[in-house]
Amino acid sequence: MNPSMIPWHQPIISILLCGLSLTSAHAEEPAPATADAGFVSLFNGKDWEGWDLKIKNGDPELAKKVFAIGDGMIHVFRDLPDRYALDSGTYDTHGMIYTKKKYSRFIFRFEYKWGKKICNNFGTYQYDAGCYYHVFDDRIWPKGIEYQVRYDHEKDLNHTGDFWASGATFQWYAGKDGTFLLPNEGGKSQPIKGGEHLASSKAEHHALDGKWNRCEVIVMGREYAIHKLNGKIVNMATGLSVGDGLVGLQAETAEIFYRNIAIKEFADAVPMEEFLR
Protein backbone atom coordinates (compact mmCIF):
# COMPACT_ATOMS: atom_id res chain seq x y z
CA MET A 1 0.00 0.00 0.00
CA ASN A 2 1.20 3.49 -0.79
CA PRO A 3 2.01 5.15 2.59
CA SER A 4 0.28 8.33 1.39
CA MET A 5 -2.98 6.38 1.39
CA ILE A 6 -2.71 5.15 4.99
CA PRO A 7 -5.31 7.09 7.00
CA TRP A 8 -4.87 8.38 10.51
CA HIS A 9 -7.05 6.60 13.05
CA GLN A 10 -9.99 8.59 14.40
CA PRO A 11 -8.63 8.77 18.01
CA ILE A 12 -5.48 10.43 16.68
CA ILE A 13 -7.48 12.97 14.71
CA SER A 14 -9.54 13.71 17.82
CA ILE A 15 -6.42 14.45 19.82
CA LEU A 16 -5.05 16.71 17.09
CA LEU A 17 -8.31 18.63 16.90
CA CYS A 18 -8.33 19.30 20.64
CA GLY A 19 -6.00 22.23 20.14
CA LEU A 20 -2.52 20.72 20.51
CA SER A 21 -0.02 23.50 19.91
CA LEU A 22 3.71 23.56 19.19
CA THR A 23 4.15 27.01 20.72
CA SER A 24 6.56 26.98 23.65
CA ALA A 25 8.57 29.18 25.91
CA HIS A 26 12.16 29.79 24.84
CA ALA A 27 14.21 26.62 25.09
CA GLU A 28 16.45 26.29 28.11
CA GLU A 29 19.57 24.17 28.37
CA PRO A 30 18.41 20.63 29.12
CA ALA A 31 19.69 18.88 32.21
CA PRO A 32 21.78 15.74 31.71
CA ALA A 33 19.59 12.70 31.11
CA THR A 34 19.08 10.47 34.13
CA ALA A 35 17.95 6.87 34.42
CA ASP A 36 14.35 7.49 33.34
CA ALA A 37 12.14 4.42 33.64
CA GLY A 38 12.84 1.94 30.88
CA PHE A 39 15.70 3.83 29.25
CA VAL A 40 19.00 2.06 28.69
CA SER A 41 22.24 3.91 27.99
CA LEU A 42 23.74 3.00 24.60
CA PHE A 43 27.10 4.70 25.10
CA ASN A 44 29.34 3.93 28.06
CA GLY A 45 31.55 7.00 27.60
CA LYS A 46 34.74 4.91 27.41
CA ASP A 47 34.76 2.83 24.23
CA TRP A 48 32.68 1.75 21.23
CA GLU A 49 31.00 -1.25 22.82
CA GLY A 50 27.74 -1.86 20.95
CA TRP A 51 28.66 0.44 18.05
CA ASP A 52 30.26 0.22 14.62
CA LEU A 53 32.19 3.10 13.05
CA LYS A 54 32.05 3.74 9.32
CA ILE A 55 33.36 6.57 7.14
CA LYS A 56 33.22 7.20 3.43
CA ASN A 57 36.78 6.09 2.56
CA GLY A 58 36.60 2.94 4.69
CA ASP A 59 39.76 3.68 6.71
CA PRO A 60 39.22 2.41 10.29
CA GLU A 61 42.11 4.47 11.69
CA LEU A 62 40.78 7.69 10.18
CA ALA A 63 37.34 6.78 11.52
CA LYS A 64 38.79 6.85 15.04
CA LYS A 65 40.01 10.40 14.39
CA VAL A 66 36.59 11.43 13.12
CA PHE A 67 34.81 9.89 16.14
CA ALA A 68 36.77 10.49 19.34
CA ILE A 69 35.72 9.88 22.95
CA GLY A 70 36.44 12.38 25.70
CA ASP A 71 34.89 13.40 29.03
CA GLY A 72 32.23 10.73 28.56
CA MET A 73 31.07 12.27 25.27
CA ILE A 74 31.43 11.59 21.55
CA HIS A 75 33.52 14.38 20.05
CA VAL A 76 33.27 14.47 16.26
CA PHE A 77 36.35 15.87 14.42
CA ARG A 78 38.31 16.39 17.67
CA ASP A 79 41.51 14.99 16.16
CA LEU A 80 41.29 16.71 12.77
CA PRO A 81 42.46 20.23 11.75
CA ASP A 82 40.16 23.20 12.36
CA ARG A 83 39.32 23.61 8.66
CA TYR A 84 39.52 20.14 7.21
CA ALA A 85 39.03 19.37 3.48
CA LEU A 86 36.75 22.36 2.98
CA ASP A 87 34.96 22.10 -0.38
CA SER A 88 37.57 19.59 -1.55
CA GLY A 89 34.97 17.41 -3.25
CA THR A 90 36.31 14.27 -1.56
CA TYR A 91 34.66 14.34 1.89
CA ASP A 92 36.32 11.11 3.01
CA THR A 93 35.44 11.83 6.65
CA HIS A 94 31.69 11.80 6.11
CA GLY A 95 30.58 9.01 8.41
CA MET A 96 28.30 7.36 10.94
CA ILE A 97 28.44 5.40 14.15
CA TYR A 98 25.82 2.64 14.10
CA THR A 99 24.27 0.46 16.76
CA LYS A 100 25.06 -3.21 16.25
CA LYS A 101 21.44 -4.00 17.06
CA LYS A 102 18.32 -3.24 15.00
CA TYR A 103 15.35 -1.49 16.62
CA SER A 104 11.70 -1.15 15.64
CA ARG A 105 9.56 0.43 18.40
CA PHE A 106 11.47 2.82 20.62
CA ILE A 107 12.29 6.26 21.94
CA PHE A 108 15.87 7.26 21.12
CA ARG A 109 17.36 10.18 23.04
CA PHE A 110 20.56 12.12 22.60
CA GLU A 111 21.94 15.60 23.25
CA TYR A 112 24.22 17.64 21.03
CA LYS A 113 25.99 20.97 20.78
CA TRP A 114 28.18 22.47 18.06
CA GLY A 115 31.91 23.10 18.26
CA LYS A 116 34.04 25.51 16.22
CA LYS A 117 35.74 23.34 13.60
CA ILE A 118 34.30 23.25 10.09
CA CYS A 119 34.97 20.62 7.42
CA ASN A 120 34.05 19.03 4.12
CA ASN A 121 31.04 20.64 2.33
CA PHE A 122 30.35 23.18 5.08
CA GLY A 123 29.95 25.87 2.43
CA THR A 124 26.86 24.09 1.13
CA TYR A 125 25.21 22.65 4.26
CA GLN A 126 26.65 24.79 7.10
CA TYR A 127 26.50 23.09 10.53
CA ASP A 128 25.22 19.65 9.56
CA ALA A 129 25.01 16.24 11.25
CA GLY A 130 22.11 14.00 12.17
CA CYS A 131 20.56 10.84 13.57
CA TYR A 132 19.51 8.01 11.25
CA TYR A 133 17.04 5.29 12.21
CA HIS A 134 15.34 2.36 10.47
CA VAL A 135 18.61 2.06 8.53
CA PHE A 136 18.45 -0.86 6.11
CA ASP A 137 21.65 -0.10 4.16
CA ASP A 138 24.54 1.28 6.21
CA ARG A 139 26.63 2.61 3.36
CA ILE A 140 27.74 6.25 3.48
CA TRP A 141 25.27 7.78 3.10
CA PRO A 142 22.78 5.23 4.42
CA LYS A 143 19.29 4.31 3.40
CA GLY A 144 16.68 4.89 6.07
CA ILE A 145 15.11 7.91 7.79
CA GLU A 146 17.00 10.83 9.27
CA TYR A 147 16.31 13.16 12.16
CA GLN A 148 18.29 16.06 10.75
CA VAL A 149 20.65 18.00 13.03
CA ARG A 150 21.56 21.20 11.24
CA TYR A 151 21.88 24.96 11.67
CA ASP A 152 22.17 27.42 8.77
CA HIS A 153 24.13 30.28 10.32
CA GLU A 154 23.88 32.33 7.14
CA LYS A 155 20.08 32.53 7.43
CA ASP A 156 19.87 31.94 11.21
CA LEU A 157 17.60 29.01 10.36
CA ASN A 158 17.06 25.84 12.38
CA HIS A 159 16.87 22.50 10.56
CA THR A 160 17.16 20.23 13.59
CA GLY A 161 14.13 17.96 13.62
CA ASP A 162 13.71 17.92 9.83
CA PHE A 163 12.98 14.55 8.27
CA TRP A 164 15.30 13.40 5.52
CA ALA A 165 13.99 10.51 3.46
CA SER A 166 16.74 8.38 1.95
CA GLY A 167 15.28 5.33 0.26
CA ALA A 168 12.24 5.50 2.56
CA THR A 169 8.82 7.15 2.31
CA PHE A 170 6.11 8.29 4.71
CA GLN A 171 3.02 10.49 5.01
CA TRP A 172 3.82 14.04 6.13
CA TYR A 173 1.91 17.28 6.81
CA ALA A 174 2.89 20.90 6.19
CA GLY A 175 1.53 24.44 6.19
CA LYS A 176 1.68 27.08 3.49
CA ASP A 177 5.29 27.91 4.35
CA GLY A 178 6.40 24.33 3.66
CA THR A 179 7.26 23.47 7.26
CA PHE A 180 5.59 20.80 9.41
CA LEU A 181 2.21 21.81 10.77
CA LEU A 182 -0.32 19.74 12.71
CA PRO A 183 -3.65 19.17 10.93
CA ASN A 184 -5.56 21.08 13.63
CA GLU A 185 -3.39 24.11 12.83
CA GLY A 186 -3.95 23.84 9.09
CA GLY A 187 -1.34 21.28 8.04
CA LYS A 188 -2.16 19.43 4.83
CA SER A 189 -1.08 15.98 3.65
CA GLN A 190 1.88 16.32 1.30
CA PRO A 191 2.92 14.18 -1.69
CA ILE A 192 5.56 11.56 -0.96
CA LYS A 193 9.02 12.86 -1.82
CA GLY A 194 12.66 12.11 -1.19
CA GLY A 195 14.93 14.46 0.71
CA GLU A 196 14.13 17.13 3.25
CA HIS A 197 10.85 17.64 5.14
CA LEU A 198 11.15 20.78 7.26
CA ALA A 199 10.49 20.85 11.00
CA SER A 200 8.05 23.29 12.55
CA SER A 201 9.03 26.92 12.13
CA LYS A 202 8.20 27.31 15.85
CA ALA A 203 11.02 24.99 16.93
CA GLU A 204 13.13 26.39 19.75
CA HIS A 205 16.81 25.49 19.69
CA HIS A 206 20.34 26.40 20.71
CA ALA A 207 22.52 27.29 17.75
CA LEU A 208 26.09 28.45 18.46
CA ASP A 209 25.70 29.50 22.09
CA GLY A 210 27.53 26.46 23.48
CA LYS A 211 24.41 25.04 25.12
CA TRP A 212 23.00 21.56 24.68
CA ASN A 213 19.94 20.56 22.68
CA ARG A 214 17.93 17.50 23.70
CA CYS A 215 16.54 15.39 20.86
CA GLU A 216 14.03 12.54 20.89
CA VAL A 217 12.97 10.23 18.11
CA ILE A 218 9.78 8.30 18.92
CA VAL A 219 9.20 5.49 16.44
CA MET A 220 6.62 2.71 16.37
CA GLY A 221 7.65 0.36 13.56
CA ARG A 222 5.92 1.42 10.36
CA GLU A 223 3.09 3.24 12.12
CA TYR A 224 4.59 6.63 12.90
CA ALA A 225 7.62 8.67 13.87
CA ILE A 226 7.67 11.79 16.05
CA HIS A 227 10.61 14.17 16.26
CA LYS A 228 11.01 16.22 19.42
CA LEU A 229 13.47 19.03 20.14
CA ASN A 230 13.99 20.36 23.65
CA GLY A 231 10.80 18.72 24.83
CA LYS A 232 8.49 19.92 22.04
CA ILE A 233 7.11 18.09 19.00
CA VAL A 234 8.62 19.64 15.88
CA ASN A 235 7.87 17.03 13.22
CA MET A 236 5.82 13.91 12.65
CA ALA A 237 5.11 11.32 9.95
CA THR A 238 2.90 8.25 9.56
CA GLY A 239 2.86 5.21 7.28
CA LEU A 240 6.63 4.59 7.20
CA SER A 241 7.78 2.35 4.38
CA VAL A 242 10.32 0.57 6.60
CA GLY A 243 9.66 -0.86 10.07
CA ASP A 244 13.03 -1.43 11.73
CA GLY A 245 16.76 -1.01 11.33
CA LEU A 246 19.98 0.28 12.81
CA VAL A 247 20.27 3.63 14.60
CA GLY A 248 23.22 5.93 14.00
CA LEU A 249 24.75 9.35 14.63
CA GLN A 250 26.42 11.32 11.89
CA ALA A 251 29.62 13.24 11.17
CA GLU A 252 29.41 15.56 8.19
CA THR A 253 30.38 19.24 8.01
CA ALA A 254 31.17 20.54 11.49
CA GLU A 255 32.53 19.68 14.92
CA ILE A 256 29.78 18.34 17.15
CA PHE A 257 29.48 16.77 20.60
CA TYR A 258 26.99 14.01 21.48
CA ARG A 259 26.11 12.82 24.99
CA ASN A 260 23.36 11.10 27.04
CA ILE A 261 22.58 8.58 24.32
CA ALA A 262 19.83 6.22 25.45
CA ILE A 263 16.96 4.14 24.17
CA LYS A 264 13.68 2.75 25.48
CA GLU A 265 12.17 -0.17 23.57
CA PHE A 266 8.53 -1.25 23.40
CA ALA A 267 7.29 -4.78 22.81
CA ASP A 268 4.03 -3.45 21.37
CA ALA A 269 3.20 -0.24 19.56
CA VAL A 270 2.09 2.63 21.78
CA PRO A 271 -0.81 4.62 20.27
CA MET A 272 0.33 7.95 18.88
CA GLU A 273 -2.18 9.89 20.99
CA GLU A 274 -0.21 8.90 24.12
CA PHE A 275 2.64 11.15 22.93
CA LEU A 276 0.40 13.93 21.65
CA ARG A 277 -1.36 14.66 24.92
Describe the structure using short key phrases.
3 helices, disordered N terminus, eight-stranded antiparallel β-sheet
Topology:
Layout: H1 10-16, E1 40-41, E2 51-55, H2 60-66, E3 67-70, E4 73-76, E5 83-84, E6 95-99, E7 105-119, H3 122-125, E8 127-137, E9 143-152, E10 157-158, E11 163-166, E12 171-174, E13 188-190, E14 195-197, E15 213-220, E16 224-229, E17 232-238, E18 246-251, E19 254-265
Concise synopsis of the structure shown:
By secondary structure, this protein is mainly beta. The chain contains three helices and 19 strands. Helices cover 6% and strands 41% of the residues.
What features would you describe in this structure?
- With 277 residues, the protein is mostly beta strands.
- The protein contains 3 helices and 19 strands.
- A hairpin with a 3-residue loop joins β15 and β16 (224-229).
- The longest helix is centred in the first third of the chain and has 7 residues, at 10-16.
- The model is unreliable at 1-15 and 17-26 (pLDDT under 50).
What is the gyration radius calculated from CA atoms? 18 Å
Helical/strand content category: mainly beta
Portion of residues in beta strands equals 35-45%
Helix content estimate = under 10%
Enumerate the spans where pLDDT stays under 50 for 5 or more consecutive residues. Answer: 1-15, 17-26
Quaternary status: single chain
| Count of helical regions | 3
Number of strands: 19
